[in-house]
């Protein structure tokens, strides 16, 4: 059985995430303790006893998702469940890189915290937002973005041929919205990730901090969110880590690669991610890991599959 492990991104955070695994596994508690020490932030309180507003703040969400995803992977590994490939939706790719041994856990926290400090400052000083548009073909939406005054509306994430996340100035997003009154459109906030040249200034401020982090060759191959390429070399992960910030993400290409895998695991409560995977691969084993029972059920599926192969 070939296993793919996915990590969800911003928007999947919720108060209480990781709590059931934290109560059951000492290794999860150790990850929470280490993260709290590294960033001087009480992640037990933040993840389990704060508010949706507090947890959704950029730095809190990004680092907490990284923590919970990393700890979930640690439990899976401890239980003998090793993926053949990893990927992460949006900022979840940072967690995937850690799971693949691309850098250390403290380095991952450090990079996210620094990135979020620059990103938050940018959001506070601009009139930028993001919308998710469902029901418009890619080519039609790309043409619309090019027509917008100022050429400052961009497709940030290609979820599928009929669903995209568009980033830009709010006035320009309103123009996009007026062009497609037949589509389903929802404002989702700039925090989800702009992934376009809008982020060039952040890249300039942030890239020097990457020199302080040792990017290692990956022990598990990773599907890059930029174009669906499978990478393993440390030099590639470092280059793509920075490129992901100001380049569009083509998640639909990642989804295509998953066709080659029998079991797809989502490390955490990524409901939207689960729906995307189930929608494209209804016949595959898809397991969302949030509690001990999920892990035990997954172990049984893997055991039965191995027995059939034998």
Please provide a written account of the structure.
The protein is of the alpha/beta class and 310 residues long. The protein folds into two domains: 213 residues, 3-Layer(aba) Sandwich (Malonyl-Coenzyme A Acyl Carrier Protein, domain 2); 72 residues, Malonyl-CoA ACP transacylase, ACP-binding (Alpha-Beta Plaits). The protein contains 14 helices and ten strands. A four-stranded parallel sheet has the order 2-1-9-10, sandwiched between helices. The chain has a four-stranded antiparallel sheet with strand order 4-5-3-6. Strands 7-8 form a two-stranded antiparallel sheet. A hairpin with a 6-residue loop joins strand 7 and strand 8. Helix 5 runs antiparallel to helix 7 and helix 10 runs antiparallel to helix 11. The longest helix has 21 residues. The N and C termini lie close together (12 Å). The model has no long low-confidence stretch (mean pLDDT 94).
Shape from CA axes?
Answer: globular
Structure class: alpha/beta
Number of structural domains: 2
Largest sheet: 4 strands, parallel
Low-confidence stretches: none
Number of helices: 14
Strand order of the largest sheet: 2-1-9-10
Q: Number of DSSP strands? A: 10
- Secondary-structure element sequence? EHHHHHEHHEHEEHEHEEHHEHEH
CATH architectural grouping of the largest domain? 3-Layer(aba) Sandwich
What percentage of the residues does DSSP assign to strands (E)? 15-25%
Oligomerization category of the chains in this entry: single chain
**CATH superfamily descriptor of the largest domain:** Malonyl-Coenzyme A Acyl Carrier Protein, domain 2
CATH level 3 topology of the largest domain: Malonyl-Coenzyme A Acyl Carrier Protein, domain 2
Average per-residue pLDDT, rounded, comes to 94
- Evaluate the radius of gyration: 19 Å
How much helical structure, as a percent, in the residues?
Answer: 40-55%
């Amino acid at each position: 059985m070939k296993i793919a492990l996915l990590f969800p991104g911003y928007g999947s955070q919720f108060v209480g995430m990781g709590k059931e695994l934290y109560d059951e596994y000492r290794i999860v508690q150790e990850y929470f303790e280490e993260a709290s020490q590294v960033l001087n932030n009480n992640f037990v309180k933040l993840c389990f006893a704060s508010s949706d507003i507090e947890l959704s703040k950029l730095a809190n969400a990004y680092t907490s998702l990284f923590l919970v995803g990393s700890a979930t992977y640690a439990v899976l590994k401890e239980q003998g469940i090793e993926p053949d490939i990893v990927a992460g939706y949006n900022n979840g790719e940072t967690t995937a890189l850690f799971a693949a041994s691309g850098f250390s856990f403290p380095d991952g926290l450090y990079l996210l915290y620094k990135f979020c400090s620059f990103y938050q400052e940018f959001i506070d000083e601009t009139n930028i937002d993001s919308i998710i548009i469902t029901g418009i073909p890619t080519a039609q939406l790309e043409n619309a973005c090019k027509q917008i005054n100022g050429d400052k509306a961009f497709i940030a994430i290609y979820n599928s041929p009929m669903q995209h996340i568009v980033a830009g100035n709010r006035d320009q997003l309103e123009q996009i919205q007026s062009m497609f009154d037949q589509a389903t459109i929802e404002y989702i906030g700039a925090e989800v990730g702009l992934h376009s040249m809008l982020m060039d200034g952040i890249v300039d401020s942030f890239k020097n901090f990457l020199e302080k982090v040792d990017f290692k060759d990956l022990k598990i191959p990773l599907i890059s969110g930029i174009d669906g390429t499978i990478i393993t070399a440390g030099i590639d992960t470092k280059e793509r880590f920075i490129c992901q910030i100001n380049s569009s993400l083509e998640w639909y290409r990642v989804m295509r690669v998953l066709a080659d895998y029998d079991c797809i695991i989502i490390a955490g409560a990524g409901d939207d991610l689960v729906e995307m995977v189930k929608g494209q691969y209804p016949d595959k084993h898809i397991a969302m890991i949030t509690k001990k029972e999920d892990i035990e059920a997954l172990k049984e599926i893997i055991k039965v599959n191995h027995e059939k192969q034998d």
